[in-house]
Amino acid sequence: MFKTIADPADCEVRSVIRFSNANKVKQAEIHRQLVEIYGENGMTDGMVRKWVRQFNNGSTNVHDEARSGRPLLVNDGLVAEVNEEIRENRRFTIRMACDEFPQISKSVLHENVTDLLNYRKL
């Protein structure tokens, strides 16, 4: 039994797929080996099929493509900070949160406060 590798980088798994595909390893066998080494969360059979197809079509890039749009700035630490501010001042409003956390839009703040933190207006 091989040692399982937890939380591999996506490009690492794609590199394994590219290498195995170049060695004429069948897609099902590539997936079986990935599950054996990286566990069930490594990559689904459908994703392996997608990447094998891309490499067969001449793609050589194993890295994520650059995406346009605004990057996600909300993480668990920031949500915890918002929660702490609310706990310190029960009269804390979304408008006050916008002043306190200018990097987060009002709608995203509202969503996090109501959905993630389960605070509701009384």
UniProtKB/TrEMBL annotation:
Coiled coil: none annotated. InterPro entries: Mos1_HTH (IPR041426), Transposase-MT_Hybrid (IPR052709). Residues 14-58 form the Mos1 transposase HTH domain. It comes from the Eukaryota. Pfam families: HTH_48. PANTHER family: MARINER MOS1 TRANSPOSASE-LIKE PROTEIN (PTHR46060). This is Mos1 transposase HTH domain-containing protein. It comes from Araneus ventricosus.
